[in-house]
Amino acid sequence: MNYPKVSVVLINYNGKELLERFFISIVNLNYPDYKLIIVDNASTDASINFLKEKYPKAKVISADKNYGTAEGGNIGARQAEGDYIFFISNDMELDKNILNFMVERMEKDKKIGICTCKMRRITEFGDKLNIIDSVGSDLDVFGFPAARGINEKDFGQLDYFTEVFFSFGGALLIRKDLFFEAGGYDPEVFTLADDIDLSWRVRLLGYKVVVEPKAFLYHRVSATLGSKFKRSQKRFISERNTLRMLLKDYGLFGLLFILPGYMCLLAAEVSFFLMLGKKDLSISGLRAIWWNIKYLSDTWRRRAVIQARRVMGDLAVLKCMRLKSHKLEIFMDYLKHYSSVEWRGYFG
């Protein structure tokens, strides 16, 4: 097989401890032609000194502030070389053949725009678990994600190549030209749902998003975001970005028939958190709406570009989505088992 050049882009913010543990798997990839680019989002924990001392061949870009995973990814992509960009997180331990399997899959079909892999769990102590984190991810019509196989023991039940709706940004291989054609990551969203939005826009251009389960890695869950944001802040960012994504990426059909349903779900969620006495979580939903009102002109400008370029209509996109609300399913499960160990203390 011909091995086209790949630029591996890693976004780091105060992740020195994670880099010390996981970075060795990145530099030891069994792929003959790749360039390593690290975007450091103004870390204050000596991450840059560690990288320059231990891995001087890597290209380190020192950002002047924390741009998040979205604009951080764009900064790295602008320095990319070759045919592909592989976006990864600093809390991943990669199998040495991961790129070989993913690139091989994409080289077989030029209509594949994005490829992701299987992710298993790894503990904070470095224990590798036979527990699935995701094997690609689905999306419901209201923009709520569901990782395929999450929390299941890995018996190989999802070890087949298939289309998925989106790839998590922690292991996203995309054709470089397509990344820029699709508009890259939305710089206004900072993080969370930026990967869903990019995958959606790639689909609108007529390309497929797939998972190649022969390629795999180990993921330390919430090692990056979980240590940086409170639950209420994560909820605000996630809901804010989801609403912006729906406004940009849906056509007229989606705006007329899907968006009202999303707003009803959000209103119900705000009320639910108020009933639980979780005012911070309730206010997060209202803040998300207000942010989108303030940024509506910018959202509409970006929407105009996306809609002008799209070749796939809403009905075709909906066929790739889950029609049932995943968030509503979670809520119903909570009502049935709210006193269980799994749910106790879930909302903080």
Quick overview of this protein structure:
The chain has helices at 16-27, 47-54, 68-77, 98-108, 176-181, 194-204, 231-249, 252-257, 259-275, 279-294, 296-309, 314-318, 326-337; strands at 6-12, 34-40, 59-62, 84-88, 92-94, 112-122, 128-135, 137-139, 145-147, 162-163, 171-175, 208-219.
Give the radius of gyration.
20 Å
Average pLDDT across residues?
A: 93
Examine the secondary-structure arrangement and name the CATH architecture of the largest domain: Alpha-Beta Complex
Q: Helicity level, as a percent range?
A: 40-55%
Instruction: Give the SSE string.
Output: EHEHEHEEHEEEEEEHHEHHHHHHH
Largest sheet: 10 strands, mixed
The CATH superfamily of the largest domain is known as: Spore Coat Polysaccharide Biosynthesis Protein SpsA, Chain A
Shape descriptor reads globular
CATH hierarchy, class of the largest domain: Alpha Beta
Overall domain count: 2
- How many individual β-strands? 12
The secondary structure category is alpha/beta
Low-confidence parts lasting 5 or more residues at pLDDT below 50? none
Report the end-to-end length measured between terminal Cα atoms: 51 Å
